[in-house]
Amino acid sequence: MPRIWADTLASHRQQVTGAILDAMAELVAEHGPVSVAMSSIAERAGIGRATLYKYFPDVGSILVAWHARDFAEHAGQLRALSTSDDVTLDDVAQFICKLRERHGRGGAGVIGVLAHTLAGAEGHHGGTIEHEIIAVLTRLLTRLVEREEVRDDQDPEFLARWLFHAGHAPAELDDQAVSQLVADSLAPRPAGV
Q: Which domains does the chain have, with CATH numbers?
């Protein structure tokens, strides 16, 4: 009899999918992207290969799903930040550094680059969560502009896009320096400058 992980079918599927995505991320971090096989993902996730193929047809589709989950987590964190009444420019800079930590170090960085590339190649970027993150950042920056905590000489959407890409700055750059650059770049400009 198969092992049941949860009380409901929906939560079981969610747990299995999470285990698959986590297993894939661990294996890529340990062995590199070329060495990952569906059989090793199934073994690491604690499921049979047939079960794995019911969820995903290949390693590329697992990478795309990991990408979607990762961006959804970022969007959730950002939505929580954007609803805070006392959010500051420093909070935004710290969020960007958290993005860098997640994507810029070790295996997660490799997975992120691969997944992002595959998602784009398969046409999954058109309505992706990336647009939602930029939209939420735009609303957040607009609010900070209105409170005169962020520069008002640039369109908030332009600044949001810049911020999003700052979160993907190369790993060898110092996080503190990137955080300071974000804060300095977004800070209000003195009159006449």
A: 1-57 (1.10.10.60), 60-193 (1.10.357.10)
